[in-house]
DNA sequence: CTGAAAGCGCTTACAG
DNA sequence: CTGAAAGCGCTTACAG
């Protein structure tokens, strides 16, 4: 149990020169003679010297670490997003600390507190559905720790944002259902306060309107982002006197719940009820019948959010303006929404 | 953009006392007068002082951070495991850095390098299936950074280990299939070098033997831990002249692949082929028919590994001996292995 | 080209 | 009870 990391002091002692010189030689400073440099670098290598990042952090007030907060890492969408974050972070020499909010404002705030304490250089976050309040993020910004929002974005915070064109995704999915002959299209939406919920709902609504179809209050239900939520809402929908012939699900888990409930209830997809949802493709394809999916470029989303964040961190002065990037979703039609005739 | 964290120096200046006194007052040292203490603590609170953990790390050579390496965080088993790690770590005042090896020895080594550099206090790891070599972990230990293995454990490293009773899980699952009348039971196993692969294979084999059934080489195939792997091996199995009437899958994804392939090929589960697999219950239940599953206490596994690690970190002297904890798996029978007669 | 000194934020023996 | 000093590992103006 020898915790003997080599230090600059040690190298200096061995070579009988000053710490300053060693430090400069290691950083390849032009003011050190080639000869000294070589001596120092050779010794450092043979001793496996690596600079103590903690000392550096203390000095530079920079940790080369960024934080990510997502609602839940077990969710494929977010784990893929984290992949994108790590990809960029890693390639630009940063490390990543991952936090889960579990959709709780409380946990989100404790994460931001930890981030502030740890002097993390910046944060990318998909806010918890509970969070209407952005104060904890504003505080971070005021401490000089930039924050970039992705997926779930809110107006309350002035910063870069990366999101998916939810409106268009829902619009196109709804149009697809209409084109397949569905006339009573329901939507199980996500939790109320989240912006993506609103956008998707609007896309759904506008598509109906465009095609002269009625918008029925009773066909729109809000649900937490869980399978149980989707299942329960589906029961509710199918119990209606005027039951839907298609359902649009707002998330992976909700859509799984819809699929599950319909099977339980004995409905055939797509003949009795067509199903489409915002869903990871590998999950959607696992189902029987495979579910038509609006897929999101999650990895890319993580990448873009992170590169915006690192730019913010590395630039001296705040940017002229903050940008909001809108990525496109993808419609993948599978059996669950193909009417028998086709 | 004011990066003005309050420091001890600042408090000392405002109160016109020395840094030493402030430091001691904050740590509630008995050698400081109640009066001074109160003054200091009150001011610190009103200024939202929080000690700089980086300075503390430099001083104490401790970061209060542990590392976790898993093959893939998108895998439910591991994300749940990480939940367990964070649960314990958090409650004992540690933070967690998460690394993914993507099953590559290379990535695993770069993670351990980073961990050593960052002076992380300890590491829990489920080794990559590629890793037969444990040198990078041994090195960590030699630097005084304890390592605890979970899930995938190997003999090459002397330390605490936490694993599931794979042997028994596979044994019981196989017995279950036999009791259901299956007579030609195949096994799609995981990658060769991993210990759990061997254990599960043995459990399968011994169960067959116990019931006087033949062990057929051609009914055992190794697969990477992917859905595609499971699918392809299933094609291979079902193409045999003497095809199996049951398949035991060695992991979530492999089992998904089996299910998928059987459906593609037009076999009914469980009538034509019974299926059971090591699998997360929420995934297994999503399928149609729902898959019988050997479930593992993943969250608990993360908890136990972490508490063993923290004990190691916090004890001065190395433990008298290293222990290996073996957790029990659970057999959850669902439709995929219930023969029609039942 | 090289070194002594100060300092990042903190703690803790050592004096008094 | 309180303070000055040294030190964790490093960098960098300031001298020379």
UniProtKB/TrEMBL annotation, chains A, B:
Q: Which CDD domains match?
A: HTH_LacI, PBP1_LacI_sugar_binding-like
Per the UniProt entry, what species is this protein from, by scientific name? Dyadobacter luteus
PROSITE patterns per record: HTH_LACI_2
| Protein name according to UniProt | LacI family transcriptional regulator
TM segment ranges = none
Q: Which residues form the HTH lacI-type domain?
A: 6-60
Gene3D superfamilies in UniProt:
3.40.50.2300, lambda repressor-like DNA-binding domains (1.10.260.40)
Q: InterPro entries recorded for this chain? A: HTH_LacI (IPR000843), Lambda_DNA-bd_dom_sf (IPR010982), Peripla_BP/Lac1_sug-bd_dom (IPR001761), Peripla_BP_I (IPR028082)
Molecular-function GO terms, alphabetical: DNA-binding transcription factor activity; transcription cis-regulatory region binding
């Amino acid at each position: 149990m020898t915790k003997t990391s080599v230090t600059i002091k040690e190298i200096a002692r061995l070579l009988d020169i000053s710490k300053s010189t060693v430090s400069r030689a290691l950083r390849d400073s032009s003011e050190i003679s080639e000869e000294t440099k070589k001596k120092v670098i050779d010794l450092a290598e043979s001793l496996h010297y690596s600079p103590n990042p903690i000392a550096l952090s203390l000095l530079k007030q920079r940790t080369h670490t960024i934080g990510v907060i997502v609602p839940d890492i077990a969710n494929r969408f977010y784990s893929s997003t984290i992949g994108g974050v790590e990809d960029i972070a890693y390639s630009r020499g940063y490390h990543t600390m991952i936090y889960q909010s579990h959709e709780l404002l409380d946990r989100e705030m404790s994460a931001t507190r930890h981030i502030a304490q740890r002097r993390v250089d910046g944060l990318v976050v998909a806010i918890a559905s509970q969070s209407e309040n952005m104060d904890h993020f504003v505080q971070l910004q005021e401490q000089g720790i930039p924050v970039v929002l992705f997926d779930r974005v809110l107006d309350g915070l002035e910063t870069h944002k990366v999101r998916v064109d939810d409106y268009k995704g829902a619009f196109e999915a709804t149009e697809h259902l209409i084109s397949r002959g569905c006339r009573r299209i329901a939507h199980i939406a996500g939790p109320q306060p989240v912006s993506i919920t609103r956008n998707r709902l609007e896309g759904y609504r506008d598509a109906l309107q465009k095609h002269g179809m009625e918008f029925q209050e009773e066909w729109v239900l809000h649900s937490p982002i869980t399978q149980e939520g989707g299942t329960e809402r589906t029961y509710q929908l199918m119990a209606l006197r005027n039951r839907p012939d298609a359902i649009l699900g707002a998330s992976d888990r909700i859509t799984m719940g819809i699929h599950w409930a319909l099977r339980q209830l004995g409905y055939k997809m797509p003949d009795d009820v067509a199903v489409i949802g915002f869903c990871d493709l590998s999950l959607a394809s696992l189902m029987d019948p495979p579910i038509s999916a609006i897929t999101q470029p999650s990895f890319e989303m993580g990448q873009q959010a992170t590169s915006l964040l690192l730019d913010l961190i590395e630039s001296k002065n705040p940017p002229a303006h903050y940008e909001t990037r809108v990525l496109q979703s993808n419609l993948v039609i599978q059996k669950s929404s193909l009417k028998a005739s086709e």
